[in-house]
Amino acid sequence: MNSFEFLEKLGFSSNEAKVYGTLIKHKVLNGYEIAKLSGVARSLVYEVINRLIAKGAVIRIDGEPNFYKPIEYQDLIRSIKEENEKNIACAERELQQLATENANVDYVMNIVGEEKYVAKAKELIDSAQTEISLSIWRESFEVLRSNIENAISRGVKVHIFTFESISVAGATVYSYNINDVSTLFPYRRTTIIIDGGECLVGEEGDRNVCVHTRNHSVVSLATDEIVLNVFWNKLIEKENLLSKGCSGADFLQAIHNLAERYGITDEMTKNFLVYNFQKEKTQNGKKC
């Protein structure tokens, strides 16, 4: 008995495939003959034939008894192709609509591990269309340098804030050029903002957990942090409060002087982790 599994792949049931395949082979048959030659039970064969008639794959020739003939296989294949193309086009439209509805979902995703962080950072930088803003350390920058330079070559504007010395052609760099920056922070945070609407924020270290998001609030906070850092950098530069290659202690003293000038006290705003780290470093320095 012939196997008509290839017809099942076109949407026929097993019995429909047997009946249509048998009719293609024998051209015109009555119900009894179809059941006998196809192997489909007589109790089922007329139900199967009627389904094929409804599909347009079989034609009934009225008589005593009725006879049945298949439509030409070329016509069947053409009909299936047209139906599939129509269904695929419809599915594409519907899927596109579904994808568009949730295109701006404000998700927040944790990324654990340096390798995954670097991969995501490179992916985001490579996807930038107009602008990249970074708050970054030199070591992290060097890992991403080639991707950043490629973005600049594509015409993407790149703004970099850093406490260290970083040089890259075509980017705007705001830097304090501190020579012993490790004395300032107990961790190293990197912030990357892509086209003003997507960011990657994380800290280097044992935990190495980063956050990737399009959430407007988080992106705005990350942007504000970079803007404020740039503001203080330009103010300190304009007032000539620091020299190039200054120390961490020089930087802290300049910030302390500005805080006193503008009435900003320790109780008004403080990152306790950084504050305690810097306080300990200062006290240890005085003991020496």
Automatic annotation (TrEMBL):
Higher taxonomy: Bacteria, Bacillati, Bacillota, Clostridia, Lachnospirales
Recorded superkingdom: Bacteria
Pfam family, one: TrmB
Transcription regulator TrmB C-terminal domain boundaries: 108-164
Transcription regulator TrmB N-terminal domain residues: 7-73
Designated name of the protein: TrmB family transcriptional regulator
Organism, scientific name: Roseburia inulinivorans
